Amino acid sequence: MDREEMLSFILDSYPYPIVFVDCEHIIRYLNKRAEYHYYQERGYRDLIGKSLFDCHQNPKSVEMIKSTVEKLRNHANEVFLHVNYRNERVNIVPVRDEKGDMIGYFERFEMNMQK
């Protein structure tokens, strides 16, 4: 098993969607849960290679994402966005290379345990 295949299996075992987006807001990776969520539940198709803003067209959402990514570029570690309709906390997490330069970001979901 090569490294890429192993990492894909690890990410596919995560029970929440993972969507990796590059610094130009182009979707580069979806784990299996994200594919199910966006393709089966939401009706999107072929998101890899498309702009994240094809999914998030609301001007308020676009501005929130852009300002959050700017915080990440300025060395923020992780930014909490909101609690979604499934009672999941949604955070945006930067992905950095070995020099610390941001190469992209992903949304991280987790169950919201707060009432």
**So, CATH architecture?**
2-Layer Sandwich
| Average predicted confidence as pLDDT | 91
Q: What general form does the structure show? A: globular
Q: Got a strand count?
A: 5
How are the strands ordered across the major sheet? 2-1-5-4-3
The residue ranges in which pLDDT falls below 50 over 5 or more consecutive positions are none
Round the Cα radius of gyration to an integer and report it: 14 Å
User: How far is the N terminus from the C terminus?
Assistant: 43 Å
What's the helical proportion of residues?
Answer: 25-40%
| Broad CATH class | Alpha Beta
Task: State which percent range the strand residues make up.
Answer: 25-35%
- State the helix count: 3
List the SSEs and their pairings.
Layout lengths: L2 H11 L5 E4 L4 E4 L1 H10 L17 H15 L5 E5 L4 E9 L5 E10 L4
Antiparallel strand pairs: 1-2, 1-5, 3-4, 4-5
